[in-house]
Backbone:
């Protein structure tokens, strides 16, 4: 056990840390939620993580995203986060995938779920905004028999204490959750773990530093707890 995880071992135990070191996580999205998921997982001792995003850091990201600094504006989020995560734990195996999942990249080449082998991962995290992509991620993870957790809307919120982890069927208030819930029901997919807020959204397209970050760290906690649950 490396010295940097000594305090984590006091809480989780050596067997749990060993399990995390062997775990491989696939993370879609490195924004206000996803960047905190990545950081939380790597600091917890995850051994392998694939981070997927196509965006470059924009100055509007500075209020809430880990990779966003004045010095990183214009740089790829995958590269900025990859560098940061390796600095946190040089032994962590980090794969950077620069793409928009189920979208169109700048070369107009579609990036589809067929480009990822979901079965090789121990856990999948969805921290993106597009409904069609979220559905596809959940469907592919379900098909591969891999646990998945999906982040619902965090924009327009001011109270991070209103987040809760539940299944998609039990969500309410959140418009994004409603759209996802409807499509998953149509496809016959049930029991998907999600995090969502019961707070009514305020404004459109806005966000603050202390809301998506909390959701991201809660997701990281859920992934860790699920992975070590049988240790």
Residues:
């Amino acid at each position: 056990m490396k010295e940097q995880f000594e305090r984590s071992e006091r809480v989780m135990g050596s067997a749990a840390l060993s399990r995390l070191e062997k775990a491989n996580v696939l993370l879609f999205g490195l924004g206000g939620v996803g960047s905190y998921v990545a950081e939380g997982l790597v600091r917890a001792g995850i051994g392998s993580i694939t981070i997927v995003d196509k965006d470059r850091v924009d100055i509007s990201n500075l209020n809430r995203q880990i990779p966003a600094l004045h010095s990183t504006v214009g740089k790829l989020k995958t590269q900025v986060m990859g560098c940061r995560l390796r600095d946190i734990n040089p032994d962590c195996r980090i794969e950077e995938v620069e793409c928009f999942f189920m979208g169109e990249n700048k070369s107009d080449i579609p990036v589809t779920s067929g480009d990822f082998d979901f079965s090789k991962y121990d856990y999948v995290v969805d921290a993106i905004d597009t409904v069609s992509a979220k559905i596809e991620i959940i469907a592919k993870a379900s098909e591969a028999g891999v646990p998945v957790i999906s982040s619902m809307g965090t924009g327009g919120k001011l109270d991070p204490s209103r987040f809760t982890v539940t299944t998609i069927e039990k969500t309410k208030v959140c418009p994004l959750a409603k759209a996802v819930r409807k499509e998953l029901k149509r496809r016959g997919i049930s029991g998907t773990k999600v995090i969502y807020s019961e707070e009514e959204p305020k404004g459109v397209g806005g966000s603050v530093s202390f809301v998506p970050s909390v959701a991201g760290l809660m997701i990281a906690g859920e992934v860790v707890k699920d992975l070590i649950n049988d240790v």
